[in-house]
Amino acid sequence: MTAPPDTIHFNQTYLNYQYEYNGFPTILAIVPWIYMLPTIYVIFKITAVLFTTDWDQVEAGKNPHVLLVITLVQISCFLFFLFNYLLVRLPATGLFTSWCAGIAPNSWLLVVSFLASYTNYLAMIYPLFMPVVRLIILIHPKAHGKENSSSTPHIAKFHCQLNYMHSKINTIIMYIAVPFGIIYPILFTFFLIPAIGVCKQLEFPYPFGSIWIYYVGPAFGLRNTPFFLGNLSVWLGLSCIANVLLFIKIAHAREQLFTQQTSGVSYKAQVSITYTTIAMIVFYVTNGLTLLSYYLFYGTHSIMAYTMLARPFGNDAQACLVSWIFYKTHPVFKKVPVTNGAFERRVATA
Length: 350
Fold this sequence. Notes:
The protein has helices at 12-15, 24-30, 32-52, 64-92, 97-101, 107-125, 129-139, 145-148, 153-183, 224-259, 264-297, 307-329; strands at residues 196-201, 211-216, 335-337, 343-345. It is mainly α. It has one domain (12-330): Rhopdopsin 7-helix transmembrane proteins (Up-down Bundle), CATH 1.20.1070. Strands 1-2 form a two-stranded antiparallel sheet. Strands 3-4 form a two-stranded antiparallel ribbon. This is Serpentine receptor class gamma.
């Protein structure tokens, strides 16, 4: 079988390649696990709260839709990290260079490339729904049980209607958002279906033997990068608009939201989610800048070609920053003393 051009398959030089420490590619493959392993634990904790909380119990700041969005964002970001790691970081070490040179291009290699692209789109889409869900909550503010106890029956009934309204709207949004996020990436990855996966030598500044997984023979000769840049621009723009509207609404409703709360829990939850929402924008900015630099300078000897080394860490920022900011600032993960001197986890508030 003849190997496609510009690949390492059946190339005798790569077949004879023997792994040895190759400097920064090996370091770039090891360092991420220093922060990703504890982040996986945090993602598990966040996901566990979503499935173990009694959402029928009314409490200040408590909202399952917000936590669902955060969980979707974290899972999609981790999956993107995993498949991107298999796509570039691990092969770049040279551990599998000789093995890959000895096999023919195949569909299993394509699966890695396809899933890296697919999960990248997932990581773009779901963060938008965080400000959207929160806007619905602010437009139809939720009334809490403790505050209702001192209300007249008419006011209490009105509060119940508001609670039902924003919950119903957000439920509909999430029923649409979850399948939309799953289906949407196919619109920009379908051209990979007839392609085949290959191994290629990474260009400057990577040394000889550092490879990555790519594809050849896509439908209509299409490439991923223009679609990525276009989608990043669209989702970043929509996210910025939604967040600006959200912060304007928060500013107008600050007194109602914060100063009139019977407990500091709701305030802490709102602040935590605001920090988390802002952190989600980091992914768009870092990924967009590094992807643009890659598109313009990859393979050249420009100093800008080194930004490809930083791109994976920009991608990691969303999974780590969002997880840790939410975990360290949200009251759901705080322990509060109870009467017998023990500690218990505060009921989830999101």
